[in-house]
Design brief:
Distance between the termini: 38 Å
Strand content: 15-25%
Structural class: alpha/beta
Radius of gyration: 24 Å
Number of strands: 17
Order of helices and strands: EHHEEEHEHEHEHHHHEHEEEEHEHEEEHE
Number of helices: 13
Shape: elongated
Oligomer: single chain
Largest sheet: 11 strands, mixed
Helix content: 25-40%
Length: about 450
Amino acid sequence: MSEALRVGLAGLGTVGGGVIRLLDANRELIARRAGRAIEVVAVSARDRYKDRGVDLTRFAWVDDTTALAQQADVDVVVELIGGSDGPALTLARSTLAAGKSFVTANKAMLAHHGYELATAAEAARVALKFEAAVAGGIPVIKGLREGAAANAIGRVYGILNGTCNFILSKMEAEGRDFAEILAEAQALGFAEADPSFDIDGVDAAHKLSILASIAFGTRPAFDAVAASGIRHLLGADIAEAAALGYRVRLLGLAEDGPDGLFQRVHAHLVPVDHPLAHVTGSLNAVVAEGNFVGRLLFQGAGAGDGPTASAVVADLIDIARGEYGPPYAMPAASLVAAATADSGERRGRAYLRFTVADRVGVLAEIAAAMRDAGVSIESLIQRGAMADGSVLVAIVTHEGPERSVAQALEKLRGSQSLVGQPLWMHILGSRVKPASSRA
């Protein structure tokens, strides 16, 4: 075998410890598959003396994380610090400038700076790998970048955040409301003390921007992702969806069309016969629709030390084999800065939920706003009064432009009949737009 691939590891949290344990447990198998051994030789983290459950005495300790890039005995740096800027970005830039390959699980950094880093990696003729940045242990990056490379992708979409999927699955199974399930998820460690990045769709938006870049040959454009989350969902919404033959999932969806790139993270009603409707708990799943391969489904554990470490080490094996390739499936110079598609022109069906005062004329007011905006109502359901005397009204629309729904909701803004803000969820359709020839 060739000389070992020597790794500098920055960040010794859950995933960093998992990487060390995986390399130890499967050392011989990994060496056979990589064609040479893969060895951690230096590590860096904020607290040198914290017990992480692994023996760190065999590795050189580097106090200044950025100095890992300058270590003469380090061939590749693995970054597991996190954060879109700060030490993680400094380390990435320093590593590539030093002519060394770089592996990261940092979706936020890639969503904001991926194009810059890809350009730097290609100029230095080194690898930039980030399989662990999207969907944990699921090999969706490799699947899109390599397995589906011959296809024009019509759209890519999926369940990209395990915390939200855990909450929605529990609401679905137990009939309880969001706030109660969130508190339970935090107690179990499935949700952070501050869960905003997860429940407001930011984490999924980071991942979606990376997937869209690979699928469509565009520069990562996180700022163009329209993101919302699940914090305003009620148990009643989950129940109404079930009665209509749907399950609620937070989906990230990207499509490339003649008017530009569309990217959105939003709660959807997913038909019960769609594979994503059966992805429960903290699992992730991604669907890609290619013009020759058809529908591809990638599903598995989207987080955790084992699955994420598996993806990190898989990238290291590629580097050990000398398998580099463009980070975003085509040379960075070929990635285009795509225009942002107008969501108002998109056509689809919608679920709208209103919490209203229990009085005469409310339904007529809502129906008039829909009529005046050109929204065709497929069904309207009114439920009995709740403890505070308000009533839930749920509407499913026929297919139409999203602009019309937005106009109808604007007409109702400030209405004395409404208690709180309406909820708008999209209904996942089966139609696929013609794929652009760009990618």
